[in-house]
Amino acid sequence: MSNVVVVGAQWGDEGKGRIVDWLAEKADIVVRYNGGHNAGHTLVVDGRTYKLALLPSGVVRGKLGLIGNGVALDPEALLAEIDRMAAMGIRVTPEVLQIAETATLVLPVHRAIDAAQERMRAKPLGTTLRGIGPAYEDKVGRRGLRVCDLAEPELLAQKLDVLLEHHNAWLRGSGQEPFPRDPMLNDLLAMAPRILPFVGRVWEQLDHAHSSGKRVVFEGSQAVMLDVDWGSYPYVTSSSTIAAGAASGAGIAPSHLGRVLGVSKVYATRVGEGPFTSELDGALGDELRERGGEYGVNTGRPRRCGWLDTVQLRQSCKVAGINQLALTKLDVLDGFESVQLCVGYMLDGARIDYMPSTNAEQQRLQPVLRRFDGWVGSTRGVRSYGDLPPQAAALIDAIQNEVGVPVAMVTTGPERDDAIVLQPPFA
Ligand code: GDP
Ligand code: IMO
Ligand code: MG
């Protein structure tokens, strides 16, 4: 058994897409198991940039992609993405993409509710406004629509009525216009013939893959600190982002998941609101943002930047089941006179070595920083550990020691093969 689950180990945008793309060379199948088009996964191949939101990153190599039941699927966004890929020469046909019948649908009403909720919050969460949170609310509220409903026009209309009864009560109660059913219904019915050929039993595909010894990469979206249980609640997304989420969000036994590769930058970023202890507000943060190109893939929002937080990373590895690390964007630290790691927290005058659970405590944390010398020269495109400046190698070693998880890969540029491989990815 040699599957790999790729999990974001920080606040998202760690470079999961490019790691999945790299792994996909030796894999047969890539599976998305959580989130929706709130994700933005970037691949750079021979100078061409592919930005994926819903499609599993293996499609760029023509590998079979599966969208699991745990994904919140906006059919409009999916079709637009398939068309964008086609324009770039990547044909996404039912031979290379299958969608779980039971994946929950993201509808225009969810986008409207997402925006209305954000407007009404005293402290907005800074969501991506894609409707992801409200769609998952409907799923657990047992009034959600699922991909399989697209095949049943009459039931679809009835289910939309039930769903809108719920949302329109809230919209009217908060002085807003109710959401109309018919345009949404008509759009869904118009899209159904394009979506339905992709629909299948993803769990069965994975079962066959397992029994025939195929290699599967599970592509996590978002990250541990955005996980609905383990993230900095309520500043989180609404799905299970961790390795356990891959089992329930794709339909495979936890014991078949294989290795769990956590992806972390060698610094830290966060987009949206919420605590970020090692954040750099001033010129250093701006420099990281500019050098790292830290702007949202889909929303274009500037990402908040700071030093790598090894306390957060260590805890994330434990709760998410991460047993190998891929460290990304080492080249972004080229030219910094010094680099820091957050290696502890001060909370109300006492030193602690864990992330407390309450938002109030998380907001009061002060970072304990450890300084490292920067390096002269470029690590861009370096593919061998021995070719790294000694200061860069020392930083990698220090991260590994603080976090207590082996580093399997270090990336040194956005291109597919700009990477140092320290441990083979498949067992
Ligand atoms: P994801 O959401 O985890 O897949 O990550 P994103 O695609 O949102 O953000 C990662 C960004 O960093 C993308 O623009 C990548 O092209 C870029 N990137 C990934 N790895 C490296 C690297 O090693 N060096 C540099 N300079 N950029 C990288
Ligand atoms: P990838 O897969 C970074 C953040 C949003 C917001 C919070 C909730 O590219 O790493 P949501 O729209 O999900 O309800 O927003 O989560 N967020 C992400 N941040 N990368 C992502 O995905 C994200 N997906 C959601 O900014 O703070
Ligand atoms: Mg991203």
UniProtKB/TrEMBL annotation:
Cell compartment(s), UniProt: Cytoplasm
Positions annotated as active site in the UniProt record: 13, 41, 139
Record carries keyword Glycoprotein: no
Pfam families: Adenylsucc_synt
Binding sites annotated in the UniProt record for Mg(2+): 13, 40
Residues that bind GTP: 12-18, 40-42, 303, 329-331, 411-413
Pathway membership, UniProt: Purine metabolism; AMP biosynthesis via de novo pathway; AMP from IMP: step 1/2
Entry's transmembrane regions: none
Enzyme Commission designation: 6.3.4.4
GO molecular function terms attached to this record: adenylosuccinate synthase activity
Protein keywords: Cytoplasm, GTP-binding, Ligase, Magnesium, Metal-binding, Nucleotide-binding, Purine biosynthesis
Keyword presence, Magnesium: yes
Gene3D superfamilies: Adenylosuccinate Synthetase, subunit A, domain 1, Adenylosuccinate Synthetase, subunit A, domain 2, Adenylosuccinate Synthetase, subunit A, domain 3
Reaction catalysis annotation: IMP + L-aspartate + GTP = N(6)-(1,2-dicarboxyethyl)-AMP + GDP + phosphate + 2 H(+)
List of residues binding substrate: 297-303
Family: Belongs to the adenylosuccinate synthetase family.
Function: Plays an important role in the de novo pathway of purine nucleotide biosynthesis. Catalyzes the first committed step in the biosynthesis of AMP from IMP.
PANTHER family referenced in this protein's UniProt entry, alphabetically: ADENYLOSUCCINATE SYNTHETASE
Oligomeric and partner information: Homodimer.
Protein known as: Adenylosuccinate synthetase
Organism: Paraburkholderia hiiakae
Lineage, top ranks: Bacteria, Pseudomonadati, Pseudomonadota, Betaproteobacteria, Burkholderiales
